[in-house]
Every structure is written in C-alpha cells, then in structure tokens.
Design goal:
The protein is mostly helical. It is 81% helix and 0% strand. The protein has one domain: Amino acid/polyamine transporter I (Up-down Bundle). It binds phenylalanine. The site of phenylalanine has 15 residues, from helix 1, helix 2, helix 10 and helix 15.
C-alpha cells in the first residue's frame, strides 16, 4: 500500500460526511462521558452541575470546536504545521503544546482503558469480586496494570496505523452505534432497579446551594472541553482530513449534541445503580472509584444477571475509550508525519511507544494518574483553549470565511455568534478559569 504523503496534495480524506461525524463523536464520547462526567457531576452537586455543563458545551464548546475546524481544514496539516500556517511562527509553541497535551492525556486514558478490559474479563471469566474496593486496588496498581495499559496502547496504535479511512473512520462507524444501543439498554435496565428514584433525584433535581462557586464552574468548563475533545488539536487534526465544502458548523452542533446526550444517558445508568445499592457515600470520597468500585460492587450484588449486564457495561466503556484513544494518538502521529516526512506507520509507532512509556507511572500509581489528569486534562486543555481563541479570534485571517464555506443560512448565524464568543467572551472567561485551575492544581500538589 502506498502511504499517503503529508503534503496536502496526497493527504488522506474521510470517506464521507457521516464518517467524519462518527469519528469526531467517537473522539468526543469516551471515558469522559461516563467515568469523568459521573464523578465531576457528583462532586459538583448533581443537577446544578449538569445544567452548567450543558451551557458550557454550547456556549463555549461549539465555538471552540469551530476554531479548530477552521484552522485544520484550511491548513490541511497536523497541529503544529496548522498553527504556523494560520498564526505564524509565534504560534508554533501552541501547536507543540497540543501534541504534548494529547500525548499526556492518552498516557493515562490508556491506563484506564486497560482497567475496562480487565473488568470485562472479570465479568465473563471470574465474576465480579465481593470486595470491589480490594479488587479495584488490584486492577489499578501493579505489574498487570502496566500490561493492560500496554495492550490498550497496542490496539490503539494498530487502528491508527490502518489510517484515517480504513482505521479511524471504519472503527468509529461500527462502534459508535453499538455503544449507543448498549448504553440505552443499560439505562432502561437501571430504571427498573429498586431505589433508582433516589439516583434520579440526586442527578436531576437542582439544588441551588451548589452553584455559586468558581471552582465548580471551572470544573464544568473543563469537563466540557475534555468531553468535546477540544483544546488539544484533535478536532483540528480531524478537520485537516475534511473535504473543502463540508458544512462544519452543522457538524459541530451535531457532534456536541451527541456528546452531551451520551453523557446524560450515562448518568441515567450510573446514578441509579449507585443509589440502588446504597453506595452514595462512596461517590465523592473516591473520585476515580465511582465507576470502578461502586458499579462492579452493584453488579456483584446482582448475581448472574449482574455478570451479563456488567459485561455489557464494561464493553461500552471499552468501545468509548478506544475511539477516543485513537483520536488522541492521531495528534502526535499527524504532527510527526508533517515534521519528519515519515510514513504513517513509522509516525504512529514512534508516538505510540513514547506514550506507552509515559503512561507507566499512571499505571502503577493512582496519585500519578490523578495528577496528570489535573495537569493535562484541565490545566493544559484550558490553556490550549485560550491559545486557540486568541489565535483564531485575533490573528488568523478571516476565519469566518473558512467556516462559511458550505454553511446553510441557518448556520451562518451560528458561525457569526460563535466568532463573537471566540473574540470577546471566551478569552476573558478562560483566563479566569485558568487562574482558578492553577490555584487548584497548586493546592493539590501542596497537600
Ligand atoms: N473526549 C473524550 C471523553 O469524553 C476523552 C478525550 C479527552 C478524548 C481528550 C480525547 C481527548 O472521554
């Protein structure tokens, strides 16, 4: 097979509009929608947080996704080259930052992906443990955790080597509908649990006390970026494989809506399960553990049916995690292909190997994982969003023109509104969020 060159002439393309949407949804929908969404929602106080998160998704997430689409499609290059093309050499460091952020996030996302493989195996082979806390300790630490992390990286690397159309697009096209069906099935099942009501109450009934807090708002904003996969060059890189006439603002709205819907439905699964089993005290005390202790605990308590449903649950997580991991790996891969003029295979193997090594600390230590999540998943992502808003809003030449291509009348309004947000509202808002985030990270290190 002839490797596609990284120059725009021979550049790979998505095979269809739906293929692109599925790949972007595949990136957006991931552990963030289930694992991370459920724990930040729990910490943020339930329903009030969900509303803030919804607002952040559309007011800031959609415009930011559009900035990445504009830069990527115009330049038809990976993150570093595209930032140079759109903003000049001064913005090359921002491109590097995207590559680093994506690599760091993948390094620990892959570790968690490894956990999901392990729990899926538990469901089938051994049954869920009667002591889910102890089981979680085993799963999340030690040499086997490294092994499962490496297995997850290997699968991710294999898909990315297969390329945009034959790997990323094809895998997303099959797996995204599967994921959604599994998730809806699980939500229906969760509704039948005794005590599901309390879960819905916590999740869906706003309690005003929880709102007025900058840290919570910052959590909602960074969860929206994390969940939409903006702020680290992914959407930029994917858009570089787009046809020139695509209506990108419509796609951005569809992708964001799908992402929110999946997170919301995931909450309809996780919270009833947790409350049905009286595990609600565990929610905020163990951030990571919400999904990996409480939920397997619930499945154990259900006996045989629990194994079946549990397998479906962890399979859903695995699918979600894998398509996100693929999009993260594509960022360094595309950048390496541009910079070194190497084949896709070489670029992917180099990036995959480096990230596999980077993930080892997170595989053996919970604290390392939490710290990298905080640093990359919040701080660097927020910094990336700020850089992108400033560059596209104030430096790039006529970003509107790029976004208006293919936009129907209705979506021209979306583009104008989005660019207004990008220029005037988002930078000061994000600067504030960044400050809050830095304050929180230092608080965490100092503790
Ligand atoms: N957006 C994905 C999710 O919600 C996770 C992710 C984060 C993917 C960052 C890529 C980049 O889980």
């Amino acid at each position: 097979m002839v490797e596609a060159a990284s120059s725009s002439a021979g550049r790979e393309r998505f095979g269809s509009r739906m293929g692109f949407v599925m790949a972007a949804v595949g990136s957006a929908v991931g552990l963030g929608n289930m694992w991370r969404f459920s724990y930040v929602t729990a910490q943020g106080g339930g329903a009030a947080f969900v509303i803030m998160y919804l607002a952040m998704t559309f007011l800031i997430g959609v415009p930011m996704m559009l900035t990445e689409f504009a830069v990527g499609r115009r330049a038809r290059m990976g993150a570093i080259g595209a930032m140079r093309e759109a903003g000049g050499v001064a913005w090359v460091p921002a491109g590097f930052m995207f590559v680093i952020t994506a690599s760091l996030i993948l390094s620990y996302l892959s570790v968690i992906t490894g956990w999901t493989i392990r729990y899926a195996i538990d469901a089938v082979v051994f049954g869920f443990s009667p002591d889910p806390g102890a089981r979680y300790e085993q799963v999340a630490t030690g040499v086997p955790a490294i092994g499962f992390h490496l297995a997850a990286m290997a699968a991710t690397t294999a898909i990315v080597i297969a390329g945009v159309r034959k790997g990323i697009e094809r895998v997303s096209f099959v797996l995204m509908p599967v994921l959604f069906l599994l998730l809806v099935g699980l939500a229906v099942w969760a509704a039948t649990l005794p005590g599901a009501r309390d879960g819905y109450d916590f999740y869906l009934r706003p309690s005003l006390g929880a709102v007025a807090n900058l840290s919570v708002l910052q959590q909602a904003a960074s969860q929206a970026f994390f969940s939409l996969s903006v702020g680290m060059g992914i959407m930029l890189t994917y858009a570089s494989y787009l046809a020139p006439e695509e209506n990108m603002s419509r796609e951005a709205v569809i992708i964001s809506l799908a992402d929110f819907t999946v997170a919301f439905v995931a909450g309809l699964v996780v919270f009833p399960v947790i409350f049905a089993l009286g595990l609600s005290e565990q929610i905020d005390e163990s951030t990571m553990g919400t999904l990996f202790i409480s939920v397997p605990g619930a499945f154990h308590a259900m006996g045989g049916i629990g194994r079946l449903v549990g397998f479906a649950f962890f399979l859903t997580l695995l699918v979600a995690a894998l398509t996100s991991a693929v999009s993260l790996l594509e960022v360094p891969t595309a950048a390496l292909m541009d910079a070194w003029k190497v084949s896709r295979r070489t670029a992917t193997l180099v990036a995959g190997a480096v990230i596999a090594l980077l993930g080892i600390p997170a595989a053996v230590s919970q604290n390392a994982l939490a710290l990298v999540d905080k640093l990359a998943g919040e701080l660097l992502v927020v910094a990336g969003v700020l850089a992108m808003a400033l560059m596209v809003g104030w430096v790039m030449r006529h970003p509107e023109d790029e976004l208006m291509v293919g936009a129907s009348r209705r979506f021209r309004g979306v583009v104008r509104l989005a660019m207004f947000m990008v220029r005037y509202i988002i930078p000061p808002f994000i600067a504030l969020m960044l400050w809050v985030s830095i304050r929180d990270v230092f608080g965490m290190v100092g503790r």
